[in-house]
């Protein structure tokens, strides 16, 4: 009985500690025409088109980008025109790994895989890539939505990884298709 009480206290304190370390609150938002739900950090706003063009200079930039006030931490979504279904998530993951290894040979790889998130297969790659004046932590996760590839990206500068890496994983774990 004492072990059970002690275990409960340890679990409770561990949960509180994790919450306090991150210190990040989320709002669950219905996005992309109410087709998905995703947790977005509280206080993040939709990035202006001007800032989006600077941060994502190609015309294939994400269709929806939430960002913090300074623009250093972002959650981006893009419902691509690429055809996709649940059976293709591993192939998409493998293709993203191959592409990113080619484009960023000096990247520091954290994890890659396909996991079930709220009943859906979701592929992901997690890596740190070089940028002009810093390194950038990226968690890119993806699934299919109505036969198209839904691509979601969390990124932040290297100095914010400690606080924001757990938040990025919480965001991925919150993905729900309606």
How does the SSE layout of this entry go?
Blueprint: H1 2-22, E1 26-31, E2 36-41, E3 45-46, H2 49-55, E4 64-67, E5 73-83, H3 89-103, E6 108-117, E7 120-130, E8 135-145, E9 148-157, H4 161-173, E10 176-177
Antiparallel strand pairs: 1-2, 2-10, 3-4, 4-5, 5-9, 6-7, 7-8, 8-9
Folded structure, characterized:
By secondary structure, the protein is α+β, with helices and mostly antiparallel strands. The protein contains four helices and ten strands; from the N terminus they run H-E-E-E-H-E-E-H-E-E-E-E-H-E. It has helices at residues 2-22, 49-55, 89-103, 161-173, and strands at residues 26-31, 36-41, 45-46, 64-67, 73-83, 108-117, 120-130, 135-145, 148-157, 176-177. The protein has a seven-stranded antiparallel β-sheet. Strands 1-2-10 form a three-stranded antiparallel β-sheet. The longest helix is centred in the N-terminal third of the chain and has 21 residues, at 2-22.
Brief digest:
Helix content is 31%, strand content 41%.
Low confidence ranges: 1-21
Query: What structural class do helix, strand and pairing data support?
Result: alpha+beta
Which overall shape is indicated by the principal axes computed on the Cα atoms?
A: globular
Rounded to the nearest angstrom, the distance between the terminal CA atoms is 43 Å
Taking all Cα atoms into account, the compactness measure Rg is: 17 Å
Overall mean pLDDT stands at: 88
Work out the helicity level.
Answer: 25-40%
How many helices in DSSP terms?
A: 4
For the largest beta-sheet, the strand count, sense and barrel status come to: 7 strands, antiparallel
Q: For the largest beta sheet, what order do the strands appear in spatially?
A: 3-4-5-9-8-7-6
Strand content: 35-45%
Order of helices and strands: HEEEHEEHEEEEHE
Count the strands? 10
């Amino acid at each position: 009985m004492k072990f059970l009480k002690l275990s409960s206290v340890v679990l409770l304190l561990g949960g509180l500690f994790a919450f306090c370390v991150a210190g990040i609150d989320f709002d669950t938002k219905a996005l992309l025409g109410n087709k998905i739900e995703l947790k977005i950090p509280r206080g993040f706003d939709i990035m202006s088109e001007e800032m989006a063009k600077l941060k994502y200079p190609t015309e294939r930039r994400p269709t929806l980008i939430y960002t913090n006030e300074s623009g250093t931490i972002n959650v981006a979504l893009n419902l691509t025109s690429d055809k996709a279904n649940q059976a293709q998530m591993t192939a998409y993951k493998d293709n993203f790994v191959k592409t990113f290894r080619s484009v960023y040979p000096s990247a520091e790889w954290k994890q890659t895989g396909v996991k079930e998130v709220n009943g859906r297969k979701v592929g992901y790659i997690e890596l740190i890539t070089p940028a002009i004046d810093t390194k950038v932590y990226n968690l890119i996760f993806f699934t299919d939505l109505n036969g198209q590839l839904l691509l979601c990206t969390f990124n932040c500068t290297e100095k914010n990884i400690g606080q924001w890496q757990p938040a990025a994983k919480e965001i991925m774990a919150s993905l729900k298709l309606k």
